[in-house]
Amino acid sequence: MFGTLIHILKNDGFLGLYSGLSASILRQLTYSTTRFGVYEELKDTFTTVSSAPSFPSLIAMASTSGFLGGVAGNPADVLNVRMQHDAALPPSKRRNYKHAVDGIIRMTREEGWRSLFRGVLPNSMRAVLMTASQLASYDGFKRLILSHTPLEDGLSTHFSASLLAGFVATTICSPVDVIKTRIMSAKESEGLARLLANVYRVEGVHWMFRGWVPSFVRLGPHTIATFLFLEQHKKVYRRLRGAGEEQGHAV
């Protein structure tokens, strides 16, 4: 992790740490918006006054929304991996996409539209695992905290549940992240079975958790910030929705 950080700073400067920022933003606009939106909509649909969805039901809802999000965000994800991977390549082998839109245009022109969905299956499976382990585990940990501790439904509960969810998500998704990165950064298409066989032959079983620490350093704070903002957003939305409904009844 630190070796890569020093290499990027030495060769590309501080701004090199933000390579792929536009692709990352595009990915969040497509991938995260889809999976969070579908998950919350499914939860609201199957929640009644007397009962809430069971934990297995939450996992099923999260898996469905994660798969849809993975497909929607795959083009931006391919760009994100490539733009960040450029910093580790010699200048002669870099793709040098200017930004996300330039990357999509060049990939479509140079490699065909199918290149935008390279690795879509492992990426969608990763999105299923990520969303199930992140969103469903967050709701599960939140329920446990509220039921077995004196904490109320506030920032302390949200922080604790999101920290645990980040740990679970990082651990479960680590093997898929390694596979996804290898596939998307490759210049030539390689079958999934062949890729797994080659990685196992060279690295053994340790490949499954290669990069776990930097993944948690990224995903842990990201998960915490996401759910803290999401909870506050839902409170504001429900307050405004309630006020709107009251005005509607008054009219």
Give a verbal description of the structure.
- This protein has 251 residues and is mostly helical.
- It has eight helices and no strands.
- It is globular and about 60 Å long.
- The N and C termini lie far apart (60 Å).
- The model has no long low-confidence stretch (mean pLDDT 81).
Low-confidence stretches: none
Q: What global shape is seen?
A: globular
Question: What structural class do helix, strand and pairing data support?
Answer: mainly alpha
Percent of residues in β-strands: under 5%
Helix and strand topology:
Elements: H1 2-12, H2 21-45, H3 55-85, H4 100-111, H5 120-148, H6 155-185, H7 192-203, H8 212-250
Helix pairs in contact: 2-3, 3-5, 5-6, 6-8
Features:
globular; 251 residues; mainly alpha; 8 helices
Summary of the model, kept short:
By secondary structure, the chain is an all-alpha fold.
